[in-house]
Amino acid sequence: MDPLYTLSGFAVGAIVGLTGVGGGSLMTPLLVLLFGIHPATAVGTDLLYAAITKAGGTAVHGRKNQVAWGITGRLALGSIPAAALTIWILSRLPKGGETLSHIISSGLGGALLLTATALFFGRRLREYAAQRADSSLRQRHLGKITVLVGAILGVLVTLSSVGAGALGVAALFFLYPTLSPARIVGSDLAHAVPLTLVAGLGHWTLGGVDWSLLGSLLLGSLPGIWLGSHVSSRVPEHILRRLLASMLILIGGKLIAA
Description:
Low-confidence stretches: none
Radius of gyration: 17 Å
Distance between the termini: 29 Å
Number of strands: 0
Structural class: mainly alpha
Number of domains: 1
């Protein structure tokens, strides 16, 4: 195990504990740009890392009755088949070629820019959604829209390992503005676990998981998340989120331009 991987896992875990987002958004580009790990391996490893770390959060929210399982099920109805289809398409591409690397890098860059947008404009989006909460058109088709959003998240997460956190929360706030923030976060976490697990196992079948790297990241991130969660009340969250969003814009732009 490389101690630098463990240290990186600790740093990212602390940011996740402080802000509630940033796992895949920071971990995958860190592995690709700083450590030079192949994008497919970075994404596959981070997906299983996310499945393990988010499972603990889901258990906590589930015990507190902070998971809207109906909403989670509708999201999964779209995301799981979309993830499986995306893995199948990736498996048809030539192994070891530049095509797969380019697709994943571009998908990662695009997902980072979308995540940054969600972080910057999340509050305005929630305010707008609250004003439109009684729209008859949205209420009539809310279930179908939720499944569609799940499918979009399934593709994004499978390609980039990014989107199950900030993007999922932003989408749920927009679709269900009357749901409490705790249930939004709990439902998003509960949905992220099967999605990242299915996508991660799919990448494993493609040879895109480094188990030693996964162990090193978990060794550092779990205490990092614990520490960040305890310090979070002393640090202005809006400042951290804006700094994180600015960083994601720079990283996402670099990945797309590469």
